[in-house]
């Protein structure tokens, strides 16, 4: 990223990347910001959370972002959740 995330340019830069992953995401950002006061949530925090969600696998469940689990066969914790990281496919050697 070329610009600080709290700058106007940084916000535009990040939103353009998110829009490329999920065109509906920009409306979601605006809806969250409409529904929650700036004293409780900042625009940059909403953008960060959405970017993390899209690349962490939620986007993949919606068929939007292909992801890879690391490790490829994760252990399952006591609550039934996989213990792994999700990264965009093609980010590791061998993908």
Describe this protein's structure.
The protein has a two-stranded antiparallel sheet. It is built from four helices and two strands; from the N terminus they run H-H-H-H-E-E. Helix 1 packs parallel to helix 3 (43-56) and helix 2 (25-35) crosses helix 3. The chain is globular. It has one domain (8-88). The chain is α+β, with helices and mostly antiparallel strands and 95 residues long. It has helices at residues 8-21, 25-35, 43-56, 58-61, and strands spanning 67-76, 82-88.
Strand order of the largest sheet: 1-2
Task: Assign the structural class, choosing from mainly alpha, mainly beta, alpha/beta, alpha+beta, or little secondary structure.
Answer: alpha+beta
Instruction: Specify the biggest β-sheet.
Output: 2 strands, antiparallel
Q: Residue share in helices?
A: 40-55%
Mean pLDDT over all positions: 79
Oligomer: single chain
Following the backbone from N to C, one meets helices and strands in this order, namely HHHHEE
Number of helices: 4
User: Quick one: how many beta strands?
Assistant: 2
Low-confidence stretches: none
Strand content is 15-25%
Domains counted in the coordinates: how many? 1
Outline: globular
**Gap from first CA to last CA:** 24 Å
Gyration radius, rounded: 15 Å
Q: Which tags fit this structure?
A:
95 residues, two-stranded antiparallel sheet, alpha+beta
Helices and strands in order:
Elements: H1 8-21, H2 25-35, H3 43-56, H4 58-61, E1 67-76, E2 82-88
Helix pairs in contact: 1-3, 2-3
């Amino acid at each position: 990223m070329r610009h600080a995330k709290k700058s106007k340019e940084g916000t535009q830069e990040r939103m353009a990347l998110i829009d490329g992953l999920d065109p509906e995401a920009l409306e979601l950002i605006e809806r969250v910001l409409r529904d929650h006061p700036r004293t409780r949530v900042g625009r940059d925090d909403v953008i960060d959370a959405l970017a993390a969600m899209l690349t962490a696998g939620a986007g993949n469940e919606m068929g939007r972002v292909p992801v890879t689990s690391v490790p490829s066969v994760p252990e399952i914790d006591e609550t039934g959740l996989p213990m792994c990281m999700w990264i965009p496919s093609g980010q590791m050697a061998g993908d």
